[in-house]
Design a protein that fits this description.
single chain; mainly alpha; Lysozyme; two-stranded antiparallel sheet; 4 strands; 6% strand; globular
């Protein structure tokens, strides 16, 4: 190769190398600045969008006032990032909302109050609080009896989903007759009608949103509204659920029982189910025996074919819950 041609190639190579080094240096500087401005993170936590208003029991609630915006934001953020629990609530609702909704409707109580049951018990009929509130609607013993629930050594109807829902409707309608405002009714379910009525009078307020209350009660209505917001828009808040993920309703037959049962385990075996399944489908049974006291109780016996997920769940109670 002629010397001049060789020198030209060396010169070109040197120039290319200098250019490449320069570009890399500039790129390195730019990349470093980009990383400083937008560092790489392992995951992202975005603040959920807070609407300017929300419907509660058919009434638009303005959420633009600072305390209401921040109160709603707190509960919406909590449910959005309490991932496992919130997802389980939606899955369970597929089984329990079909039981609760018709009872609310038949008693003239707004459908939104099913979300009160969600925040009270996480839709667990056997839920029990440190204060000894029990069941889906978390009744105290005296209150449960007041609204018609049987509570004996062998029976606790606070854990009977349908009967406890009827009892809750009685309380809610009684409270509405007093307040004529469903938000105040919801607050009274937590604090009691006496407390809410007294505070409305002492603070010269018209509804629960304007009251200064203990933290638990102050958060209560916002929690109901926030979980409703997520249930109605789960994908928007990061919950990706398929029909097969929802808990399917399990069909049962009802066996009327008027006589005492000395051994519920033997009774279950005669019905072709386990004692454990008898208790799961009748969580109001609180002992190994049943004393009827002259009453007739309906015991639910699950259908064997429904006890397995041989086929994926296809029942979707609310189409908004699933991604198609």
């Amino acid at each position: 190769m002629p010397l001049s041609k060789k020198n030209n190639m060396i010169t070109l190579a040197s120039c290319a190398l200098i250019t490449l080094v320069t570009v890399l240096a500039v790129s390195s500087t730019d990349s470093k600045k980009v990383l400083e401005d937008h560092p790489v993170v392992l995951s992202m936590t975005a603040s959920p969008e807070v609407p300017s208003s929300a419907l509660f029991c058919g009434k638009p609630i303005d959420i633009t006032r600072y305390n209401m915006h921040e109160g709603f934001d707190r509960e919406l953020s909590s449910f959005t990032y309490f991932h496992s629990t919130t997802m389980l609530l939606i899955k369970r609702a597929n089984r329990y909302f079909p039981l609760i909704e018709p009872i609310l409707r038949a008693n003239g109580v707004p459908d939104d109050f099913k979300y009160l049951a969600v925040i009270e018990s996480h839709l667990d009929p056997r839920a029990s609080s440190p204060a000894r509130a029990v069941g889906t609607w978390q009744f105290m013993e005296a209150t449960g009896r007041q609204y018609g629930l049987a509570i004996t050594p062998t029976v606790d109807e606070r854990c009977h989903v349908e009967k406890a829902t009827v009892a809750a409707c009685k309380f809610l309608k009684e409270a509405y007759a007093q307040y004529n405002d469903w938000a105040s009714v919801a607050a009274s379910y937590n604090a009691g009608m006496g407390r809410i009525s007294g505070e409305l009078t002492k603070q010269n307020a018209n509804n629960a949103f304007d009251l200064w209350l203990v933290e638990e009660t102050s958060r209560y209505v916002y929690r109901i509204m926030a979980i409703k917001q997520i249930f109605e828009n789960p994908y928007k808040y990061g919950f990706v659920i398929g029909a097969q993920d929802l808990y399917k309703p399990i069909h049962t037959k009802e066996v009327p029982v008027s006589a005492d049962i000395a051994d519920l385990s033997a009774f279950a075996k005669n019905q072709g189910i386990t004692y454990a399944d008898l208790k799961r489908f009748n969580p109001w049974l609180r002992d190994t025996k049943l004393t009827t006291g002259g009453k007739t109780f309906q015991l639910k016996i699950p259908e064997e074919n429904d006890l397995h997920y041989h086929r994926p769940n296809t029942y979707v109670h609310d189409a908004r819950w699933v991604v198609r």
